[in-house]
Amino acid sequence: MEDKLNPAIVGAFVLVLGAALIAGVLWLAAGMGGQKSYFSYRSVLAESVAGLNVDAPVKYLGVDVGKVRSIAIDPQNSRQVMLGFLIERGTPVKQDSEAVLKAQGLTGIVYVELSGGSLGSPALLPTREEPVPLIPSKPSLSTRLENVLGTVLAGLDQMSGNLSAVFDADNRLALKTILSDTASLTTVLAQQKEAIRAGVADAARTAHLTAQASAQLDPLLKRITAASVALENTAQTVDQVGKQWGTTADAATGGLQQIRSETLPELSRLVAELNQLSSSLRQLTEQTKRTPSSLLLGGPTRPAGPGESPQP
């Protein structure tokens, strides 16, 4: 007895199994059922983005945190490229974070690297005024090397031009003449080496004699210095004595003035009184000689004059 399979049941089973397989693949592709969410960011680069593709990874300090969503030329500046990113929520993008292009190993796959920024910088998050925040960018290593090499090559080119200008036909001829004159001078100096040696010896002898003379002059200079010091001290002493004599003379002058103003008038009065006393004594002596009794009886009575009454 043979079993018979219903083709309709088999076909339905195949369709259901295929639909379940497709649904599982889509679920896995959507990120395990949509557990991850992203913020949109953008950045502007002033360099070539050759090798960078859409869906290229965006890394934060080497950790995958998103992908490149779009690449386009800046409509406002054709020398810049605008990049759009999808970055996982919770990624610590700071306001001073920077985006830079980097190449991965030997494969040369280009991706976008985000720097960590400073610790004190606030987070860069979407706002109502700026729903897609702008992450600043900086030149990549290849661009910096290219700029440095360009500067070095430009300097070398300028140096080469300057050297070509320096060593033109006229300057080469002048340099040749200088070298020829230098060779001639060297020859002359070689011929006069004996005279030069004698001159050097004479100079050495003169220097030696000068040193000896200097050694002999040193004690003399010391004695002259000592004499100058002694003379200066003597001058100071004379100056002090002069000042003392001046003080003494001022004191003597003051004393003479005091004697003249106080003593001399008293002395003059004393001399006048002595003169009067001497005159009185002389009169008394003469009277005694004429009339010795006058010492006891007194002098003779003077007759009364006209209009005077006689004395008793």
Oligomerization state: single chain
Q: Which runs of at least 5 residues are low in confidence (pLDDT < 50)?
A: none
How large is the share of residues in beta strands?
5-15%
Would you tell me the structural class of the helices and strands? alpha+beta
Task: Summarize model confidence as the mean pLDDT.
Answer: 79
Strand order of the largest sheet: 1-4-3-2-6-5
Q: How many strands, what sense, and barrel or not for the largest sheet?
A: 6 strands, mixed
The count of β-strands is 6
Give a description of the structure:
The protein has 312 residues and is of the alpha+beta class. It contains 5 helices and 6 strands. Strands 1-4-3-2-6-5 form a 6-stranded mixed β-sheet, with no helix packed on it. A hairpin with a 2-residue loop joins strand 2 (57-60) and strand 3 (63-73). It starts with 6 loop residues before the first helix and ends in a 15-residue tail after the last helix.
Identify the notable features of this structure and list them briefly.
six-stranded mixed sheet; 6 strands; elongated; alpha+beta; 312 residues
